[in-house]
Amino acid sequence: MKQVDGVSQQLVTIGLTLQEAGIYRALLTNQKLRVRDVAKQLGIMVPSVHRSLVGLKRKGLVTTFGRRPLALTAIDPKLALGKLVNDRYQGELAVKDQIEEALTRQTSPEPELGVAFLESKQATYDYTFPLINTLQKEMLILSVGEPIPEEIFLSLFRAIKRGVVVKMLSETYNETNRELLTNWKKNGWQVRHLPKPTLDFTLTILDGKVTVVQMRREKEKDRRVGIAIYNPAYAAAQREYFSALWQKAKEI
């Protein structure tokens, strides 16, 4: 094929085939060409031009006029190439996220049946974070409604994007956390407020399998101890308890 220059090679790096790049370059040089003229100029067959046109039109690089003979013109690269690069970047970014989630599921084994002691608030976060990355159905949270680490928030955001339901029962809803709860709700959480908070623990249930209970220490929040129980039967009972509270709670 003729007219394979440095610019054509650069077009290949942003997603064009070599033949598509050659056709686009020819149209930019000549402004408007018939299909057979493109084929003659590049030294390729007319059917090959038609096949490449499918990709060039999908990428938003050319437009066609008439039917017989079919004429082609290139769209201004200042408009077309920026959109092409951005669309490709967004597509690759989505694929990257899918690959990361798939690999996380493979490398984060399901915990064994049993109990784990969590000696601090940070230990609780460290335990639940890999489980959040592998959530498939739901996460139920009963808490005072206080800030969480950014990595936990982002992991939950990705979980919601893949269809996981996140329900939050907050014992507090006032000027101290109203903006926080509203932001969670905007990001896909289902949030309700318990009108009469009386609990001295927080509760988290992950996919109906793992239950994390943490004792409340208002003066030493970072030293809150807890336990994680991997037992689907126990989690099912706690889920019923959560559901009963959820029915009594108020929408925010």
In whole angstroms, how far apart are the ends? 65 Å
Helix content: 40-55%
Q: Strand content of the residues, in percent?
A: 15-25%
The assigned CATH architecture of the largest domain is: 2-Layer Sandwich
Relevant CATH superfamily of the largest domain:
Endonuclease Chain A
- Report Rg: 29 Å
Question: What spatial form do the alpha-carbon principal axes imply?
Answer: elongated
Give the overall average pLDDT: 83
What's the CATH first level of the largest domain?
Alpha Beta
Number of domains: 2
Q: Can you summarize the main beta sheet?
A: 8 strands, mixed
- What is the subunit arrangement here? single chain
Domain Transcription regulator TrmB N-terminal: 14-78
Organism: Candidatus Gottesmanbacteria bacterium RIFOXYB1_FULL_47_11
InterPro entries: TrmB-like, Tscrpt_reg_TrmB_N, WH-like_DNA-bd_sf, WH_DNA-bd_sf
Protein name: Transcription regulator TrmB N-terminal domain-containing protein
Structure description:
The model has no long low-confidence stretch (mean pLDDT 83). Strand 6 (165-170), helix 8 (178-186) and strand 7 (190-193) form a beta-alpha-beta unit. 25% of the residues are buried. 49% of the residues lie in helices and 20% in strands. Helix 2 packs across helix 4 (46-58) and helix 3 packs across helix 4. It has helices at residues 6-13, 18-30, 35-42, 46-58, 77-107, 121-133, 150-161, 178-186, 232-248, and strands at residues 32-34, 62-65, 71-74, 114-118, 138-143, 165-170, 190-193, 201-206, 210-215, 226-230, 250-251. The chain has two domains: 6-81, Arc Repressor Mutant, subunit A; 107-251, Endonuclease Chain A (Endonuclease, Chain A, 2-Layer Sandwich), CATH 3.30.870. With 252 residues, it is of the alpha+beta class. The chain contains nine helices and eleven strands. This is Transcription regulator TrmB N-terminal domain-containing protein. InterPro entries: TrmB-like (IPR051797), Tscrpt_reg_TrmB_N (IPR002831), WH-like_DNA-bd_sf (IPR036388), WH_DNA-bd_sf (IPR036390). Residues 14-78 form the Transcription regulator TrmB N-terminal domain.
